[in-house]
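Format notes (please read before filing issues)

Several people have asked whether sequences and structure tokens are stored in separate files. They are not. Every record keeps both together, in the order shown below: the sequence lines, then the token lines. Line labels are part of the format and must not be stripped during preprocessing.
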Amino acid sequence: MNPGEFRHKTRLSVKTTTQRGDYGDIEISSTTTHDIYAKIKWLPGSEQVNAEVVQLIKNAEFIYRFSSVTEIIDRIDTIDYLGDSFFVKSIQYTGHANQQMVIIKAQTAQ
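Then the structure lines:
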């Protein structure tokens, strides 16, 4: 992996959840944003019909270097890139030592 491939500036929105004491519902209590550089691989897109409107779904694979920020990413978090908000669908950790990476597959519609 070349260091120059990690040139796309993305914004990670990491959400913190808490559980209510009364009925046990889980709610988002706060959101923290982090600007991190990533390598982006575009995956084939698709379409979704929602309320008789056809939406284009963009699929992407975001590759980050492993850090304390990428270690806390969960499936409720989002990635903002070029005005699009991507929802995390899967997280994969690969590599070892100083070559650890986090591969996140995400899409624009939920």
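For reference, the curators noted about this record: DSSP finds no helices and six strands in the chain. The chain has a mean pLDDT of 88.
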